[in-house]
Amino acid sequence: MNSETELAPAVASILEAARERAGDVDAQLAVDAQSLPDAIAGAEADGRVPVIAEVKPTSPTADGTRDDDPVELAQAMVDGGATAISVLTEPSHFGGSPEALTRVREAVDVPVLRKDFVVREDQLDVVKSDLLLLIVRFVDDLEALITATRERGFQPLVEVHDRAELETALEAGADIIGVNNRDLGRLEVDLETFESVAPHVPDDVTLIAESGISSPADVRRMREAGADALLVGSAIMDHSGGDSDVTENTRQLVDAGDGDD
Ligand SMILES: O=C(O)c1ccccc1NCC(=O)[C@H](O)[C@H](O)COP(=O)(O)O
Description:
This protein has an 8-stranded parallel barrel, surrounded by 7 helices. Helix content is 34%, strand content 15%. Helix 3 packs across helix 4 and helix 3 runs parallel beside helix 10 (246-254). The model has no long low-confidence stretch (mean pLDDT 94). It starts with 8 loop residues before the first helix and ends in a 7-residue tail after the last helix. The chain is of the alpha/beta class. Strand 2 (84-88), helix 4 and strand 3 (112-115) form a beta-alpha-beta unit. Bound molecules: the ligand O=C(O)c1ccccc1NCC(=O)[C@H](O)[C@H](O)COP(=O)(O)O. Belongs to the TrpC family. Residues 239-261 are annotated as: Disordered.
């Protein structure tokens, strides 16, 4: 693994579970992926802020759990204008599953990201998706895993948290990069993380701002700092109880480009 600073206990536990989770060694998947850059261009063309909305039943930092059907959640997000859907497939800390992703991908007509903590090549073959998250900090040979991801037809979204990780991602050939505002050491979010890394990202990279985006003002701030798209989970899911309207929560962020709060 790629870092010296300590992980939060919850993240260390996530990583341990990820290392133990079996992949599939029998069958190498072949994916016909929908393009995220094309979906982003489509959203821009009709005046929507490109939002990747996340089906995230719970998480170590969530206020609670939402048990809604993942397909209904994803369809509600698309109704609210989401450009793509992210689905957690991590089972033990986020309440996700590969089956949920498969059902969502069959039901929606936008690119779907597999959000998990993939550490080995065999774990790529668990479920088909359009995009697949690789976290620089958790991967030993990033270039090899990016190659293996592309060989199967997935688009790798490579997640970084600082400039050193950005350099690692670029050297490994990443062309879709997410800057995570959540610090995996303390689990705090700080939008300045994206603002400090974004100026060093080449223009031909598709750049995603991840985590901690909770209001139209945050959306505009990340867009002004150079985000091509935003990955949003908690603010759309609203784990705090009740039946928060996922479509409306998505629409508020998608429409943030017009300056209304
Ligand atoms: O969300 C968490 O609590 C979390 C804890 C430990 C490691 C990763 C975690 N989240 C993964 C993510 O990257 C987010 O789900 C995603 O960026 C959306 O973030 P948010 O909008 O803040 O829910």
